[in-house]
Amino acid sequence: xxxxxxxxxxxxxxxxxxxxxxxxxxxxxxxxxxxxxxxxxxxxxxxxxxxxxxxxxxxxxxxxxxxxxxxxxxxxxxxxxxxxxxxxxxxxxxxxxxxxxxxxxxxxxxxxxxxxxxxxxxxxxxxxxxxxxxxxxxxxxxxxxxxxxxxxxxxxxxxxxx
Length: 162
Ligand code: OFO
Prior knowledge:
Layout: H1 4-33, H2 37-63, H3 83-110, H4 114-144, H5 150-158
Helix pairs in contact: 1-2, 1-3, 2-5, 3-4
The structure holds hydroxy diiron-OXO moiety.
């Protein structure tokens, strides 16, 4: 059984994950408008992955006989100054999510809720991977700013993401 406090915190995280998905979908739409289909595809894949994160929490709450309660999803931004600015915003967002996951883990440990802690451990590892991945794209985009043509090559490479 989930405590009431944990159930609410996990429901809030479903909303955070759905917002993440919405944010990356908005970035995908913006990249399409900038004629960067590879970046758009990368963000589209990211949006689907975030939806999967929301569903992991959704399934877990149900398995623990909790009640999933969905809330409204905040409107994401529509524009970014540059491809670099969009990926930097993505990195900031992932750092925010890491903070949220850490808080959830603190709560699970304080409540001695080992089942929830085990699920959260997957997210702790996932956040390390996500932050590292986005950060490496940010670093490459910084280098690409000084090399004409490099952005198009990066766009092509990012479009290879499955
Ligand atoms: Fe990007 O990891 Fe979920 O939110």
